[in-house]
């Protein structure tokens, strides 16, 4: 509804600011964790979006390398000039750019060469299908391995979404996937709970 009504622009601005403020608090507490924020196509279409990101980083004193923006493949398929220009401006700031839900689009992979990305996230559907009795496990595993190999060849950090079981994690470790995200590793946590968990673990790897 937020996307269809256009309210996502205002909502996204609030989320981005709160995320940057939280990332600064983590840095001051020596956690040093990148904060990752999803960005919609409507936000990228705003001519001043990159400028507003730069202003927030400057206002709160967060080095750009600690902010990661996630863009869906569908955004890249649009190839709108305003979006292309915005992505280039964000990259020039030093902000990390990641392709979210990778593998669900219907394009060639030419945008991996055209845009300055730092990482990609394998869509959760590839891991979730491994749990289905009628799933072709070998094919899904091969796709996951191929995506990890593609990311490595392009020097991109690869994160797998939907890590819900020990078997999921074992598979990702076997193919040397860089990062995992899912309930098996941790359920979503509030800020205080996250800091407590980080203290117990002795720090976390972004």
Compose a concise summary of this entry.
Helices cover 51% and strands 14% of the residues.
Overview of the molecule:
- The protein is an alpha/beta fold and 206 residues long.
- It has helices spanning 2-5, 8-28, 41-44, 49-60, 73-78, 81-93, 110-114, 125-128, 137-153, 166-174, 191-201; strands at residues 35-38, 67-72, 96-102, 119-122, 157-161, 179-181.
- It has a six-stranded parallel β-sheet.
- The protein is globular and about 50 Å long.
SSE string, helix = H, strand = E?
Answer: HHEHHEHHEHEHHEHEH
Distance between the amino and carboxyl termini: 31 Å
Contiguous helical run count: 11
Radius of gyration, Cα only, in angstroms?
18 Å
Main beta sheet strand tally, sense and closure = 6 strands, parallel
**Outline type:** globular
Strand order of the largest sheet: 1-2-3-4-5-6
Q: What portion of the residues fall into strands of 2 or more residues?
A: 5-15%
Residue stretches low in confidence (pLDDT < 50, at least 5 long) are none
Mean pLDDT rating: 87
Number of strands: 6
Helix content: 40-55%
Structural class: alpha/beta
């Amino acid at each position: 509804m937020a996307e269809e009504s256009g309210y996502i622009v205002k909502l996204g601005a609030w989320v981005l600011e709160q995320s940057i403020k939280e990332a600064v608090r983590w840095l001051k507490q020596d956690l040093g964790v990148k904060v990752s924020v999803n960005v919609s196509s409507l936000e990228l279409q705003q001519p001043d979006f990159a400028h507003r990101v730069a202003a927030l980083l400057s206002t709160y004193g967060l080095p750009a390398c600690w902010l990661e923006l996630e863009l869906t493949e569908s955004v890249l398929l649009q190839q709108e000039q305003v979006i292309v220009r915005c992505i280039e401006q964000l990259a020039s700031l030093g902000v990390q750019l990641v392709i979210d839900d990778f593998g669900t689009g219907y394009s060639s992979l030419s945008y991996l060469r055209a845009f300055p990305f730092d990482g990609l996230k394998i869509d959760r559907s590839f891991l979730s299908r491994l749990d289905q009795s009628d799933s072709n496990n070998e094919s899904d595993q091969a796709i996951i391995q191929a995506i990890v190999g593609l990311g490595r060849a392009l020097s991109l950090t690869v994160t797998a979404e939907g890590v819900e079981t020990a078997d999921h994690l074992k598979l990702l470790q076997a193919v040397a996937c860089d990062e995992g995200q899912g309930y098996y590793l941790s359920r979503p946590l509030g800020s205080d709970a996250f800091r407590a968990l980080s203290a117990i673990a002795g720090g976390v790897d972004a």
